[in-house]
């Protein structure tokens, strides 16, 4: 998956692959870029730990990777695609809720 910026203007989040090994590989190769200036983003520790509600009451515990742009020094959090920025529910939970809501409106 190609990393994409999320969150609109002033965003500080990049959505990346769910596989942390793949994300580290991209970082080592300099293939993650800053959404602000497109220069290389380098690993810079981790963001705060997060708990995200998943299907059937499961809770995902994440500690997303953080990067810093080598040019503009902006920091960005790398969120795996299974979660959404600023949401406490996993993306598949949000998606299922939207499908249910759409079905209810059609009846
Ligand atoms: Zn930058």
Structure description:
- It is a single chain.
- The chain has helices spanning 20-28, 91-106, and strands at residues 4-6, 13-16, 41-46, 50-53, 59-62, 65-69, 75-80.
- With 107 residues, it is an alpha+beta fold.
- The chain has one domain.
- The strands form 2 sheets. It has a 5-stranded mixed β-sheet, with helices on one face. Strands 4-5 form a two-stranded antiparallel sheet.
- Strand 4 and strand 5 form a beta hairpin.
- The longest helix is centred in the C-terminal third of the chain and has 16 residues, at 91-106.
- Bound molecules: zinc ion (ZN).
- Zinc ion binds at residues 34, 36-37, 39, 69, 71-72, 74.
- Residues 34-96 form the DUF6431 domain.
- InterPro entries: DUF6431.
- This is DUF6431 domain-containing protein.
């Amino acid at each position: 998956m190609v990393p994409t910026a999320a969150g609109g203007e002033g965003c500080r989040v990049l959505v990346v692959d769910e596989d942390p090994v793949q994300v580290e590989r991209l970082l080592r190769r300099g293939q993650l870029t800053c959404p602000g200036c497109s220069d290389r983003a380098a690993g810079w520790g981790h963001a705060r730990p997060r708990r995200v509600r998943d299907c059937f009451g499961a809770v995902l515990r994440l500690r997303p990777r953080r990067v810093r742009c080598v040019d503009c020094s902006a920091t960005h959090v790398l969120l795996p695609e299974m979660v959404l920025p600023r949401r406490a529910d996993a993306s598949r939970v949000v998606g299922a809720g939207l499908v249910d809501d759409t079905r209810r409106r059609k009846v």
